[in-house]
Design brief:
Layout lengths: L1 H13 L2 H19 L4 H16 L3 H17 L6 H16 L3 H18 L4 H17 L3 H15 L6 H17 L3 H17 L7 H14 L3 H19 L3 H16 L3 H19 L4 H17 L1
Helix pairs in contact: 1-2, 2-3, 3-4, 3-5, 4-5, 5-6, 5-7, 6-7, 7-8, 7-9, 8-9, 9-10, 9-11, 10-11, 11-12, 12-13, 13-14, 14-15
């Protein structure tokens, strides 16, 4: 499997997302032909495919793949293994994205209990779980537990060599939660620390975009629309590079449209709004509420230009 992951990482780094999907599907076909579906390798590749679908905004396909991977492992008697717990964590993250934060919290807690029981969590892996749990708590409106989870994650990994990714993610989560509670100065100090960690990395990180978006939000609150737009644009570029035009891309394009409108650049505002509309329509369909809202907003904006 080492060669598989090496090739997959190379495709994702290159930004060739269609080739990555084709590679995943072909690998599944090859494993099925040689060993059948009921093997740990098949579940592992399914997990990677599900993660790809999740990042691309293809949530139903992602959920089916995650649940199939879990079923394969359960059929193999591998329910109480770190591999099973890892896929549980990934499924929980998907449930949060799909708008089921309380379900996500329950699955994260189940995965964490399993890892603790197996004594297989390790500081880095457990911090990753805690960071995701923090986001689920936040989305469920439980900011107290969200902050506690993010802070525990940060304290686990800070100063550990090679743990820069989870350190930065923890700082970003803490910043987002502080922003939601109105503690804006503390939020900005935290996000600046996170951005400093990302800046020190030798390679661009897939979650850098989230921190850039948090910084943009804080700058926008201060009325610094031009600076906020600069951070938002970089976040949009990184989102497309690593994940393609997914739901985060659509939300970023919509935010850039609003910022451009504030700056009086209505041409740019219409252009970004068109990108958001195209993305929502591709991912959610022409009649979804978000698609309709974008279409109506774009129609009103163009009417003003006439």
């Amino acid at each position: 499997m080492n060669e598989f992951f090496k090739e997959l990482d190379s495709l994702f780094i290159s930004g060739n997302l269609k080739a990555a999907e084709d590679f995943l599907l072909e690998t599944l076909r090859r494993i099925e032909a040689s060993s059948g579906r009921e093997c740990a390798e098949y579940a592992s590749v399914l997990n990677e495919l599900a993660a790809y679908y999740r990042n691309a905004g293809r949530c139903r396909e992602s959920e089916r793949a995650f649940r199939e991977a879990l079923a394969v492992l359960e059929g193999l008697g591998m329910r109480r293994t770190p591999q099973y717990a890892t896929i549980l964590v990934n499924l929980a993250g998907l449930l949060r994205i799909m708008g089921f934060p309380r379900d996500a919290v329950a699955v994260f807690i189940e995965a964490g209990s399993l890892l603790s029981e197996l004594r297989a969590e390790g500081d880095y892996a457990y911090a990753s779980l805690l960071n995701n749990l923090a986001l689920a708590y936040k989305d469920a409106g439980d900011l107290k537990n969200a902050y506690a989870a993010a802070l525990e994650a940060f304290e686990l990994v800070r100063g550990i060599p090679g743990a820069e990714h989870e350190t930065a993610a923890s700082l970003n989560n803490l910043a987002v939660i502080r922003e939601e509670t109105g503690m804006l100065s503390e939020a900005e100090a935290l996000i600046d620390q996170a951005l400093s960690v990302y800046a020190s990395m030798t390679e661009e990180n897939v979650h850098h975009a989230a921190a850039l978006s948090t910084k943009a939000s804080l700058l926008s609150r201060k009325g610094l629309s031009a600076d906020a737009a600069s951070y938002s644009l970089r976040a949009l570029e990184l989102t497309e590079k690593f994940f393609g035009r997914n739901m985060d891309y659509a939300a970023g394009a919509l935010n850039l449209s609003l910022l451009s409108e504030e700056l009086g650049d209505f041409s740019a505002a219409a252009s970004y709004l068109s990108l958001a509309l195209e993305t929502y329509e591709a991912l959610l369909g022409a009649e979804h509420e978000r698609t309709r809202e974008c279409r109506e907003r774009l129609s009103k904006m163009r009417a003003k230009e006439v």
